[in-house]
Amino acid sequence: MTYIELIITLQSAEEFHKDLLINALSEIGYDTFEDTDQGFKAYIPEPDLDLEQLENLALNYADLFSFSYILNTIPHQNWNEIWESNFEPIQLGGKCYVRATFHEAHPEFEYEIVIDPKMAFGTGHHQTTALMMEFMLEQNFKGKTVLDMGCGTGILAILASKLGASQVMAIDYDEICYESTLENAELNNINNITVLQGSKEVIPNQKFDIIMANINRNILIDQLAVYAQVSKPETLLFLSGFYEEPDLNILKNSAKAVHFEYLKHQTLNNWVAAQFKYLT
Prior knowledge:
Elements: E1 3-11, H1 15-26, E2 32-35, E3 39-45, H2 51-61, E4 66-74, H3 76-86, E5 90-92, E6 96-99, E7 111-114, H4 127-137, E8 145-149, H5 155-162, E9 167-172, H6 175-187, E10 193-197, E11 208-214, H7 217-229, E12 231-243, H8 244-257, E13 260-268, E14 271-278
Parallel strand pairs: 6-7, 8-9, 8-11, 9-10, 11-12
Antiparallel strand pairs: 1-3, 1-4, 2-3, 5-6, 12-14, 13-14
Helix pairs in contact: 7-8
């Protein structure tokens, strides 16, 4: 699939202005972001690009701060090369080591995850993925059934399996993410992950012990009621993909409306991961 690269250059803007733009872009389909010296880059599948939406977004912020943008087309092959050239191994909590197929193995870590980067979101480098993984490393997954919504590369589903989950359901609407999760599960010798392509409509009619969703605020709000339907008493819900202000309070209220009790959250560069528990 061909992707579009949006290069944003900020002029005389505060740091939170960048956060506002990233949040707004994530709500219209941009799913990967990379900081630059003068702003940031954002990526979207070419079929999802809506120039009118982008122009309207620019107009909405024109009176608040000044910025400019250009668009580039990134062919599928070049996108893979970009990912591979920028993918460095990471460590999380002293327990988990995430690397690509072309990096040296480090079996001394309790959990080693191999991810073929490609262009699917979720290599552990983005703040939201790292926050979710840190939450997971604190939680008991042994024998649990797990739902991973917006699975990207499948990294969270794979970690859940390595942490002892009995069954993992991984779902993403993007065909590349669907295929990437299948491939990465095989790379990690995981055989208890079921991968489905779609959104909330493909969630099976069963109950899960743990639900994870690293998407964006509006999609999370739209899907919360379905998460409640597939929750058991005291099912844990991990949410990420949004900002502390104003998103966290909005999501707390939306979650409370469908009987999810807020437990705690943690932040990294204004990105948030929050934990909830389902109450009957």
